[in-house]
Amino acid sequence: MPALVDPANKLGNYTVTSSNGTLTLTAAPLTVAADNLSRLYGDPNPTLTGTTTGLKNGETISVTYSTTATQTSAVGTYPIAPAVIDPNNVLGNYSLTVVNGTLTVNPAPLTVAVTSFSRLYGDPNPVFTGSITGIKNGDNITAAFATSADPTSNVGSYPILAALIDPDGKLGNYTVTNNPGTLLVNPAPLNVVAADASRLYGDPNPAFTGAITGIKNGDNITATYAGAADPTSAVGTYPIVPTLVDPANKLGNYTVTSTNGTLTVNPAPLTIQANDATKNAGDPNPAFTGVITGIKNNDNITASYSSPADATSPAGTYPIIPSADPNPLLSNYSITLINGTLTVQ
Fold it and tell me: What is the pLDDT of residues 180-195, one digit of tens each?
């Protein structure tokens, strides 16, 4: 509606025709936009937010935000929808644009840690264990643990691997970190003991024997036994030394304890027996003789014979006494002396 302004009072000179115009009010643009947000699988939804732009004249509206995603929702994207509440009935003055946001559910971290173990070569594997951390929503995810090693595997280290079992198909909701364990196969104890033996001086060595304990997996490990002594070795003790025979190269799987035996060389029996003799009274003693039995290794063992009788001894019987001539080899013998008899007629 026009209104004329006439500060000089001139309107009386006019015939005035007044025509109204029209003012058209159009709706103002109003935008409600939900914010984009993210969280990990299994976590609760964050507080949903957004922005409202375009309100005029101090007018107010309320906005709430919601999504179909829940704590158990799988990894993926879900809309965040704004809902506009207009308690003051002002929305008629606006051209409303509602923009959804996106809630991105990202994979949750899942960590598998396999426990390390050790055992001896030849033993069965222990029961393997480990831990799983990060499972959400009670998901039925378990693990089985295995290694390539078996009782016949050589000494060394072998990985223990975890295989996840997921009957409900939930692993797609996780970023998995799988930390293997280690099975350490240690050497098994192996004992070889040579048996003690004995013999007489001058005899050949007996067949040496011994025992091996601790062989695993039927490994073809045997032993030979030897000593440095031979038939000429003096009375005393000598080591019997075991030597392991390993054609399949399995000894690297063992910690070997080798125990020597003892060969005891005992004195050989040696008998010196004086022969009997006769003579007439007044005669000098005859040359006495005797027999030595038991000499070994062609040792140069000799004997001397004597009697307390002499040319003045009256008729009767007198001993003929043998004695071994000095010789360092006599220590290898156990000597028995047998007197003879001198008969003086």
Answer: 999 999 999 999 999 9
Whether pLDDT at 244 is above 80: yes
> Could you give the CA distance from residue 267 to residue 299 in angstroms, rounded to a whole number?
14
How far does CA 176 lie from the centroid of its chain?
A: 26
Average pLDDT of the segment spanning 72-96: 98
Which amino acid does the sequence have at 40?
A: L
Please state, in angstroms and rounded to a whole number, the distance separating the CA atoms of residues 171 and 180. 18
**Does position 1 have pLDDT exceeding 80, yes or no?**
no
SS3 of 238, please? strand
Report which residue type is found at 289. T
| Bridge partners of residue 266, in order along the sequence | 200
Query: What's the whole-number mean pLDDT along residues 225-235?
Result: 98
DSSP 134-190: ---TT---EEEEEES--TTPPSEEEEEEEEEE-TT--GGGEEEEEE-EEEEEEPEEE
Among residues 23, 84, 25, 22, the alpha carbon closest in space to that of 59 is found at: 84
Tell me the two tokens of residue 87. 């308690």
Q: Name the one residue in this structure whose structure tokens are 């991105």.
A: 104
Q: How far is CA 283 from the centre of its chain?
A: 94
Tens of pLDDT, residue by residue over 196-224, are: 999 999 999 999 999 999 999 999 999 99
By three-state DSSP, how is residue 328 classified?
helix
Structural domains of the chain ordered from first start: 28-106 (2.60.40), 109-186 (2.60.40), 189-266 (2.60.40), 269-344 (2.60.40)
φ, ψ (nearest 5 deg) of residue 279: -160, 165
Q: Token digits for 324?
A: 């071994």
pTM: 0.78
Sequence length of the chain is 345
Only one residue has tokens 């003991």, namely 193
**Phi-psi region at 54: left, alpha or beta (left = phi > 0; alpha = psi -120 to 50):** left
Q: Is 126 helix (H, G, I), strand (E, B) or coil?
A: coil
How much of the chain exceeds pLDDT 70, in percent? 99
